Amino acid sequence: MTQALDLPTKRQEEWRWSDMAALEAAAQSPMGDMPDADAWFIHGLDGPRLVFVDGEYQAKRSDPGPIRVEALPADTEHPLGRRAGGTGWMLRVGEGGAETCIQIVHLGSGGANHVPARIELAADATASLVETYVGTGWANRLTRIDLGRGARLMRSVRLLQSGGFVSLRDEATIGEAASLVSIVLGAGDMGSRIDGDLRLTGEGAFAEMGGALLTRDSQSQEAAVAVHHAQPEGSSRQIWRAVAADTSTASLAARVEVARDAQRTDGEQSLRGLLLKRTATVNLKPELEIFADDVKCAHGATVGELDKRALFYLESRGVPPARAQAMLTRAFVADALARIGEEAVREAFAADANRWLESAL
Asked: Is the pTM of this model over 0.90?
């Protein structure tokens, strides 16, 4: 552990790719200018809106609807998540209810800020929400999710900070026939660490966590997600894409555990990395731990460069080299972002990825 913030170190296997020096620098960064929140809401979503500035709720700039802002405990052993106690937000939807198109914008001006969150959906309830991170500093979040029988949650997260560090810790319990889909896009210039611990505790539960991490310069982003199947006939998907340019590093670790009683589990891990320069680094680590004997679990991990024949084909038909690279890279990440259910959100994420490509290539 480092002395200043008591952070994990690279000597711990699950943190060996983490850039805790970037996190510590972000936590100690001075306060600066604050970006405008309104510019980061996605148009076309008519739902509750919340704004947090440096971790503090902004009541005058928010329309929270059913979301309550209150003190929440950081009841986790995760080394970063346990710091995220204090005032946070809670979404609770009763049986058969629906709360969709929720947007939460987190603005950072520097220093460290911590916000806990809790999402509880009763049986057959539905919810969808988008979270956006902009600005700078260290934004640290802990989100607890509990889904009752047949509940459905679609969660989309975009990391667009111009600097600093974002750390997310999601801990979810998914009940019988319930569904959780969580998609993350890292297209800013900050460092990041995305942690997920998803537990399928009911028969026929479904969990998906994935997305795309885009890195450049000396930036480092990583995701580490573990899915635990405890009951029969559960399904899970981890579809991640990493694109690394310059001397940057993108790291993905995906783990699936299948208990002895979780027969007829269907799990898929797809980790793919794209190097835009050979000085960049992509780390991939898929893991399967299976104790049941009637399961279907597949995992794949590949790292490569853009297809030179495809580039030649496009350039031979008059497409400029930079645009040809952008087209192929856009196609590379498209399947990870296509999992987002709402069209307006999916288009906003695609636009964020396009802006990153235009500036990086």
From this structure: yes
